[in-house]
Amino acid sequence: MYIEKINSPRDIKSLNIQQLEVLADEIRSGLMNRLSKRGGHLGPNFGFVEATIALHYVFDSPKDKFVFDVSHQCYTHKMLTGRSNAFFSDEHFGDVSGYTDPGESEHDFFNVGHTSTSVSLACGLAKGRDLKGEQGNIIAVIGDGSLSGGEALEGLDFAAELKSNFIIVVNDNDMSIAENHGGLYRNLKELRSSDGKCPCNLFRAMGLDYTYVSCGNDIARLIEAFRKVKDTDHPTVVHINTLKGKGFEPAETHKEEWHWHMPFDPASGADIFTGSGENYGDMTCDFLMKKMKADRSVVTMVAAVPVCIGFTEDKRKEAGSQFVDVGIAEEHAVAMASGIAKAGGKPVFATHSSFFQRTYDQILQDLCINSNPATLLVNTASVYGMHDITHLGIYDIPMMSNIPNLVYLAPTNCEEYFAMLDWSIEQSRYPVAIRMPCNGVIHTDVPVDTDYSDINRYKITQSGSKIAIIALGDFYQRGEELAKLTAEKTGTAPTLINPRYITGIDEELLEQLKADHSIVITIEDGILNGGFGEKIARFYGADSMRVYNYGLKKEFLDRYDAEDVLKENHLTPHQILDDIL
Amino acid sequence: MYIEKINSPRDIKSLNIQQLEVLADEIRSGLMNRLSKRGGHLGPNFGFVEATIALHYVFDSPKDKFVFDVSHQCYTHKMLTGRSNAFFSDEHFGDVSGYTDPGESEHDFFNVGHTSTSVSLACGLAKGRDLKGEQGNIIAVIGDGSLSGGEALEGLDFAAELKSNFIIVVNDNDMSIAENHGGLYRNLKELRSSDGKCPCNLFRAMGLDYTYVSCGNDIARLIEAFRKVKDTDHPTVVHINTLKGKGFEPAETHKEEWHWHMPFDPASGADIFTGSGENYGDMTCDFLMKKMKADRSVVTMVAAVPVCIGFTEDKRKEAGSQFVDVGIAEEHAVAMASGIAKAGGKPVFATHSSFFQRTYDQILQDLCINSNPATLLVNTASVYGMHDITHLGIYDIPMMSNIPNLVYLAPTNCEEYFAMLDWSIEQSRYPVAIRMPCNGVIHTDVPVDTDYSDINRYKITQSGSKIAIIALGDFYQRGEELAKLTAEKTGTAPTLINPRYITGIDEELLEQLKADHSIVITIEDGILNGGFGEKIARFYGADSMRVYNYGLKKEFLDRYDAEDVLKENHLTPHQILDDIL
User: Fold this and answer.
1) Does A344 touch chain B (CB under 8 A)?
2) Triad A535, A396, A70: Cα angle to 5°
3) Which residues of B touch A161 (CB under 8 A)?
4) Which residues span the domain enclosing A548?
């Protein structure tokens, strides 16, 4: 196999086109080995094999620098830069992440996992090169729906100001994670169907030079195109048309399903682990479908990740105009939700905790200053959420809960979650965010409140004395365990509290606790800094009440084991009780 | 005067073109009256008089709905919707804000002050209208550099998906606050010079219908154009070429200087109040100019507000390629700064606290996960910063200080500020943000540290006992006053601490304080929730130390008096001491 002899990009430069094509096949077998056993971004990687080979053939990494957008298409790049073991040897799977990582290789320049950042990051590399009088090509790769993201569009617009070498490879596979959304994709289609000759051209309209390659999986044609732009003295777009999932028939046919995939049988494409039982994605979808059918003014919104709340293609069709996928455009989504609410509609916008980070200003300015009653569903906001450093869901409490006017709710079980969601959709007074539970679907027989308009009213779920445990959201069950353990060990039942509201404190209840409690413990599923517990610590700051805040340390985690992290942060009920006693 | 008889937009519909032109002159006299005495956005309002008259003449507000971007061009709209008193009667100046405000009028739909939001907000109004089966035109107005902002570009891209009436008026005055930046403005120029006929068209490339009006200050031509798009069934851009500052010669000539202006003499254009003495804008510019001359790898970056750090046109020219104005594109700026730092450059990006809100995700993902040593200068981050609800500088501590890896510094005087800035530029380990002082230029004779690499090391500036005062950043002087007062009233000198680091706590020092202190007071210039003091409260949560956190309440303020707000929050030294004793 050629791949066995490739330790650096230099090693592919002596191969001829036919050999490179064989190499592409070998790479796909490596991709298949890792992805079928471990899961990951299948479609993006399978589609970008030839382009990556051609890039490394023409350019000289790391002197020439590649910046991959999202970097979920970088597996071939990893294989060609000395990391092929992590694809062919199962015991080395753990050596590499699913994204570029400067800690792994001198050929990776950034830890990247969010969309739409490559052009701006690469503009920085180009500017740095020019300031220091250095040489080399800077190549940003972008595609897969990322173009519609505000950061990417800002970057494209700015790139035209560079007066030196800068190459943007637009990997156009006619897809986002789901189908593309937005007018610019019509222009990409026009460009594809006119072989790049259509005079109305988004990239030229942004002030950039432009070239088109129709066969983005043809190594020879790609090499030819990249050679033409190598060492040029101005910014250029190379628009290449690739086939997402190329080389694996199920992925070519069902692109959305195979964008990211769980482990599967390579022969049949069948999932190895099939999910069973309830999940909040499907349940949220069912709930919203019912609401939408009953009320034409309810509208569900997503930003390119519809399946995070269960909206598969059939559900999207069924919802019709009451379902809006804005594409990768989270800022737009939040502002638009504010507008819909202002007009009397009832918008629910859902995305991941990590992706809400794009919308801090829109939540504060467009939504909360205007107090419009939109609902934000914050998904995978938990230590149990996504485990890559670029997708952590543990920062949303400090980010969102300190914004005035926002009501941020933390349900503790399934019934409470849907009661909160229902209340939020039907009320017309507050912008509301709901932290979707992330600890499995837990049911309760205890009736839950249906009205949450008495803001910041915590709920005592077990009355006791001496110790009060305030257990937020999906760490409520942890609080229950701690309460049980405390009663066992101390002989006194503690008070257990479901605070429900992340955005404020129940001063009356906290005041009352002073009467027969000397210890308050807070537990939250996120970093402590700027979070929920610190507000309780501040409240009791000048009192004799002893306050212990439990949550996560402020740090970046990467590919972690949740239970290990919980232990390191002393978050098991035994650890907490030991600390206090 | 016609304007005296106009109480609602209906009242202008009976006027003929000549009368409307007289009305425009009257409106300019109202603008001049208010702006010359009170200051405000001069250029944007003078340039948009005719377009606003034509919009209200053709459309039927509030059934037809206008959403103004930034809304700093909405003064004529205010005059035509029953608020002309606030322009002609000096005693009524305070009746209106400088932006649209639903609290003022049914013709205003959003409190808006940040750029690039109108298209997305208006998309929401359009979607809400359609969901509810209502009628009416939705018109988003955008221009003045706002098009380059990511949120606007996301909105433009999405707008093409609407299948109903939606009108985007692009107010093209060939300017941002300073000159425009970005490739798309070249396309606007091509469109202007081809009378809108150039086949490469950004708006068409975004999937939108398009029409061009060359004379954007000609009421008759504008009326004609708006009539053509009224009640159309799909999204359309009306690109109008206006003259910024039209009708006031100094503003037509010096567009940047007159974008926003302090009170002035209407005859000569001369400023009424001339600034004297030192200011951090000019001093920061001088400092950075020296750094840049000494080191070619230092680069100053701004996003359309160069003068906030003193970079007037002559200074920008002098700095040459070491000065980058990315235009309104804050997300891009932070990501690009990360890239420059990665490439070995030394970037300093400055903007207002309120505008950094656009970049939460870029600070966390593009910059801090990658630990690249870029410097962020956070301006007007204070209760003494900008006083409009949309421009408040009191939320940056909770937003930024809880992001891992970031070192956020709070200088307490001029010498410390520049020492921190110098250290930050020269170090290569941390992403650093610096909270520019906002309480006047205060000097010190006490030598300041030059090395801040021993992260989270607080500085005891006065040793005492019983009470420790931790006074952050530009509230340090407030801490000094409190210390003096405390010594006077209690007979015991307290300890005074300059914490310097917002992003972490000095556990060793806080531990030591336990020996001979029973009270810790924190004082910070921002909201308490998620802020600095709460971290101190958490540290001492389980101890007997009494902790008092002083800062601002979590709320939206609008056009406030800073001293009143400080009193309401018990932030005067006398109030603090009274609380504690």
Assistant:
1) yes
2) 160
3) 181-183
4) 459-580
Composition of chain B by helix, strand, coil, percent to 5: 45, 15, 40
Beta-carbon neighbour count of residue A13 at 10 Å? 11
Phi/psi at B152 (5° precision): -65, -40
pTM over 0.90: yes
Q: Which three-class secondary structure state does DSSP give residue B146?
A: helix
pLDDT at residue B135 in the model: 96
Residue B320 sits at the chain A interface (C-beta within 8 Å): no
- For the domain that residue A466 is a member of, what is the CATH number? 3.40.50.920
Instruction: Establish if A151 touches chain B: CB-CB under 8 angstroms.
Output: yes
What distance in Å separates the CA atoms of residue B540 and residue B89, rounded to the nearest whole number? 55
Q: Are residues B247 and B308 in the same domain?
A: no
Check which CATH number belongs to the domain holding B248 and give it: 3.40.50.970
In a domain, B262, yes or no: no
CA torsion A332→A336→A339→A343, rounded to 10°? 170
Report the residue of B101, B119, B120 to disrupt the A interface, i.e. the one with the largest count of A CBs within 10 Å.
Answer: B120
Residues of A in contact with B360 (CB under 8 A): 357-358, 360-361, 399
Q: Of B435, B468, B493, which residue constitutes the final position of a domain?
A: B435
Token couple for B559: 């056009």
Measured distance CA(B400)–CA(B353) in Å, rounded: 10
| Per-residue pLDDT tens digits for B497-522 | 999 999 999 999 999 999 999 999 99
Q: Tell me which of A111, A139, A365, A394 to substitute to probe the interface with B (most B C-beta atoms closer than 10 Å).
A: A365
In a domain, residue B448? The reply is no
Q: Is A192 on the interface with B (CB under 8 A)?
A: no
- Each residue of B162-204: pLDDT tens digit? 999 999 999 998 876 777 889 999 999 999 999 999 999 999 9
> How many CB atoms are located within 10 Å of the residue B234 CB?
15
A106-135 b/e (C-beta count within 10 Å ≥ 16 → b): ebbbbbbbbbbbbbbbbbbbbbbbbbeeee
Number of domains in chain B: 3
Q: How many CB pairs under 8 A join A and B?
A: 419
The C-alpha of A496 sits at a distance from chain B's nearest C-alpha, in angstroms, of: 19
A403 close contact with B: CB closer than 8 A: yes
User: Inter-chain contact A402–B554, Cβ cutoff 8 Å?
Assistant: yes
